[in-house]
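Case study 2.
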Amino acid sequence: MTTHGGFEPVFCTIVPPHVLDRLAQAEDPALARPARRTLQRDAFERTQRRLTTVIGATAAAAVADGRPQRTVHDARHDTDLPGHKVRGEGDKPGKDATVNRAYAGLGATFELFLQAFGRDSIDGNGLPLNATVHYDRDYNNAFWNGEQMVFGDGDGEIFLDFTIPIDVIGHELAHGVTQYTANLTYFGQPGALNESLSDVFGALIKQYTLGQTAAEADWLIGAGLLAPRVTGTALRSMKEPGTAYDDDVLGKDPQPATMDDFVRTGRDNGGVHINSGIPNHAFHLAATALGGHAWERAGQVWYDVLTGGELRQDAMFVDFATLTVKAARERFGDGEELDAVSKAWEQVGVRTL
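Prediction:
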């Protein structure tokens, strides 16, 4: 694994802590209890992630042959990982729709990275893709723990089954790609870039699966995850950061779209899930300006930067933006790709060197 001078133990969840904090304070126990339980479980898993980093994880046997090696486990509402194996690679679909969605999402992620970028699994060397579903009870999150994916079923009040949006699966697995490449520090602007890259590739996986162009895509992260009672469409919007939800319980989506509204906070690891809206919006602007399939040009530039070896662990927005301009020029020359990428960063208020 590439560590660029030191490994940063990262525990990555799709639902930001500030959302769960808000829910935990709700007057309705049906909303507050699951949120508090989820926060407690996340804190435990975060500690386990640090211990795994110190002790060392069990190495998974990888076969770099251009084919996925998927295994889905069922936690049966317990918290022991990985749980009971319920579907392996090549097995036929069963009756559990959650298992089938997880299996399909792992495969879609593998296919996007292989077909679009020539990457064999998230480590580039055929790493087996493992997932656990039905984790805990009323668990309002999904996460990548450095070794595998884990999905909660949601509480049914605010969140539904976390395998429903394929971009959630792609987002979390993309954290694994970052782990094995640039390994961006999970705090402040580097952490926001870490989160944004997962949103970018999560969105690309959904678009690739649906065969959508940049113009056809909704650019929402987690569409279909919010329960009917919630006033909102998704967890985040790359097209219009800050508009994904505006709910009496969840509050208003706090993501900024430009540096004019950059949020300075000590919470959420320095606002990693909040300020990711800025690079998210830059990618959307570049991709829609270029048109066609977003993974072919804008996505290729972002992937080149993530995996090119020049992106430092502590990279700021300006560092990443500058590298995307360089990557666009190196891959496509002084054409519309370079122009679209440069203008996108200018529009969100991030200068390039």
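The longest strand covers residues 70-74.
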